[in-house]
Amino acid sequence: MNRAKPRALIRITAAAASVAILAAVNSRDARADDSASLLKAMTDYTAAQKSITATFDSDVEVITPDLQKIQFASSGQLRMARPDKLRVKRTGGYADVDLVYDGKLVSLYGNNAKAYVQTEAPGTIDQLVDAIQAKTGAAMPGTDLLLTNSFDVLTSDVIEGRHIGQGVVDGVECEHLAFRGHDTDWQIWIQTGAQPIPRKYVITSKTIAGAPQYTLRIKDWKTDPIADADAFAFKPPEGAMKVGLDSDVMIEFDEVPAGTTAGAKK
Description:
single chain, outer membrane lipoprotein receptor (LolB), chain A, 23% helix, 38% strand
């Protein structure tokens, strides 16, 4: 009788441990499923907005040949009116650029180079982004958050998603999600409440030694109609020259300076 009690206790303890482990697994799985629903809520909300204005800060990391990690910072402003109006201005240590799209023409002006590129691109913002990526190979990180099919684009390479928990970005409470892909991992912080807007976005490149990251912080998000009639009209500054996409001056448009980091000049 005395020997039976410890065995019963062992069985009860083991059963309790199994229940606890199962609950933890179920909670983890529920949280993983939750990441998709939270991301979908964000992309549905942003896609439904006819007008968006915001400011942003971005950091891009570069790994040098001797495996030193260098970070380049820039800031900018975004104006967008669906389906076919976009303006993005970005200023950093090596680039001062203004991209303007009016639904027919896309113009890219580099203030440092005092030059601009302009080409016909009738269509929508989604089509413009696809065309730029196809023709130039530019990754354009962050634009995938603005597309009408943003959820499909963001999750196209996802093999695992997790809802990490809560976080605070620039004083705003957010849901913190993390996703894994074959070549990149990425995280996103989404504002809680009735306006699930993206506040922070981090992309990690896994196929490059040192795993460099791209970080985007979004602020001053507004969805009021854009009243400025010239918001999406490009007017070349006096003295600016028009160049082709293959011009050497195009390197001035890049956020990262050309050549080795050590030899780059501002």
